[in-house]
Amino acid sequence: MSDEHPVWDSWPGDVSWQPVSPRLAIVRILSLLLVGIPTGGLATLLSWLWWGSPWWQITASVLTAILLLRIVLTGRVVRAWGYAERADDLLIRHGLWTKRLSIVPYGRMQFIDLSANPLQRMFDLSTVKLHTASAGTDSTVPGLAPTEAAALRDRLAERANREREGL
Fold it and tell me: 120-155 burial, b for 16+ CB within 10 Å, e for fewer?
């Protein structure tokens, strides 16, 4: 089976995919380490306390393997993120194992959030989150420079207002 899936790599017509910042990989790795090291340390401590049972040793080994795999794949996961602004909608793609392509019509956007946690701010990054009437909508564009994120928010809000006025 071929790994080439044109639906994920291109779009009919000219779509200019915008990547997210590579600094997002560093933020994601640091986030993994901030959670993974204490969790792994606790599992290791428990394996020493209950030496007769191998379950804590197995748990510590599995957690370490998962952490290392996620760290190794972080760069590829970040490179899979992209967004494209078209005339009537915003395209967002991401995913390494399960690829996802979301199409958010401008007329469906209710409000747009900008956010940045302390780690993101340390690396000068922001996240744009789109909210629609659907509670299940998960349309986010992480890893943008704050000025780029604010400009995207303003363009999306202006287009959403224009689309709603035309209804």
Answer: beebebbbbbbebeeeebebbbbbbeeebbeebbee
Average pLDDT over residues 86-95: 92
Contact by Cβ (8 Å): 20, 10: no
Token pair, residue 146, equals: 């704050």
The DSSP bridge pattern shows strands 100-105 and 89-94 to be antiparallel
Using one digit for the tens of pLDDT, what is the confidence trace for 50-89?
A: 766 677 778 778 888 999 999 999 999 999 999 999 999 9
Single-letter amino acid, residue 145: A
Sign of the C-alpha dihedral computed for residues 141, 102, 134 and 109 taken in this order: positive
- Own/partner long-range contacts of 140-149 (Cβ < 8 Å, ≥24 apart): 140/92, 141/20, 141/81, 141/83, 141/92, 142/20, 142/24, 142/81, 143/20, 143/21, 143/23, 143/24, 143/27, 143/78, 143/81, 144/20, 144/21, 145/21, 146/114, 146/116, 149/114
How long, in residues, is the chain? Answer: 167
